[in-house]
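User: Please fill in residues for this 319-position structure.
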């Protein structure tokens, strides 16, 4: 894979600082029941990287401080971590909102048959990637049979009340298949609702459109096709200063499976750690108060968050 960091480090992106911390986004490890070609962490069934019991306890300790509103769990398939359920239950007992970034197919895996019930019982918000409402496009991106298994996963969640009440939220994620910006989130959400409702009688709450970042596999493909500069030009030409106020790194930190801190998941993928006093920090030494007004580590990929309607792990930043 071709590295994009050397092309991104020299940047004219405006300096930004943190506000109060609200969300911990935690990568529990790289094990996954799928092995998607585009996966930005190369997750798969044979990956062994998993967050340790000690670091899970550090996360719980931080949640117990009462300062964090949301725990956002990613992977791999976070549900395959042996302590996933303990962490979710502890967080919910502390009244912390939990998001599970779920690939939907995990809901039908052997040994996970009661996962949907567990998520529903703990009122976990499910955020799931579904890059299109047609089988050909989804299977092309994520593997044969993934579309049908995803529809089955949504059906299971709907039967448990997902998309039907504010306690059971199911959001889907779309990202473009190439070097272009996502279409209007509002318009695409209404197309998805119509198509999935009419064809499969399934429902969801919101669609999040996420801009492709010029990093990892997507960035490498841009370089090899000679499209990297054009795509960066598009992101920069579409810069919207309003989005600077709401980029997700203002109130979120990302934690890797070894417990190191980053300003966001993209910086984690680029191995650009969060810096406090010029040093990278571990979850075990984090004091939330220290983060306030801290400079966020930026590079040219940050233009992916501010282009057009803006982009974050929670979708567009503006209409
Ligand atoms: S489901 Fe997600 S984490 Fe798993 S291999 Fe695919 S992209 Fe990677
Ligand atoms: S890429 Fe990360 S650090 Fe840069 S603006 Fe987006 S969220 Fe913030």
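Assistant: Residues filled in for all 319 positions:
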């Amino acid at each position: 894979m071709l590295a994009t960091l050397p092309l991104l480090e020299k940047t004219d992106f405006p300096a930004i600082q943190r506000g109060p911390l609200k969300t911990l986004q935690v990568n529990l490890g790289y094990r996954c029941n799928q092995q998607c070609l585009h996966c930005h962490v190369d997750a798969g069934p044979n990956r062994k990287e998993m967050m340790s019991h000690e670091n899970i306890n550090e996360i719980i300790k931080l949640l117990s401080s009462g300062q964090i509103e949301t725990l956002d769990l990613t992977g791999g398939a976070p549900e395959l971590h042996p302590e996933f359920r303990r962490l979710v239950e502890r967080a919910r007992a502390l009244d912390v909102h939990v998001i599970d970034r779920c690939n939907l197919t995990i809901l039908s895996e052997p040994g996970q048959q009661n996962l949907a019930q567990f998520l529903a019982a703990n009122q976990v918000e499910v955020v799931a990637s579904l890059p299109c409402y047609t089988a050909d496009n989804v299977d092309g991106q994520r593997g044969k049979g993934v579309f049908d298994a995803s529809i089955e996963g949504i059906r299971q969640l709907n039967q448990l009340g997902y998309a039907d009440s504010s306690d059971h939220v199911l959001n889907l994620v779309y990202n473009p298949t190439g070097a272009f910006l996502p279409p209007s989130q509002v318009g695409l959400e209404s197309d998805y609702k119509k198509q999935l409702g009419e064809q499969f009688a399934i429902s969801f709450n919101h669609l999040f459109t996420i801009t492709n970042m010029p990093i990892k596999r997507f960035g490498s493909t841009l370089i090899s096709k000679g499209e990297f500069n054009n795509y960066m030009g598009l992101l920069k030409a579409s810069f919207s200063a309003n989005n600077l106020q709401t980029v997700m790194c203002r109130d979120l930190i990302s934690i890797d499976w070894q417990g190191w801190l980053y300003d966001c998941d993209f910086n984690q993928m680029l191995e650009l750690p969060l810096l406090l006093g010029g040093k990278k920090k571990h979850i075990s030494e984090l004091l939330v108060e220290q983060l306030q007004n801290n400079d966020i580590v930026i590079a040219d990929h940050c233009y992916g968050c501010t282009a057009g309607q803006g982009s974050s792990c929670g979708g567009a930043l503006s209409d």
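For context: Strands lie at 23-27, 70-74, 97-102, 125-129, 170-174, 206-209, 252-255, 261-262, 275-276, 279-280.
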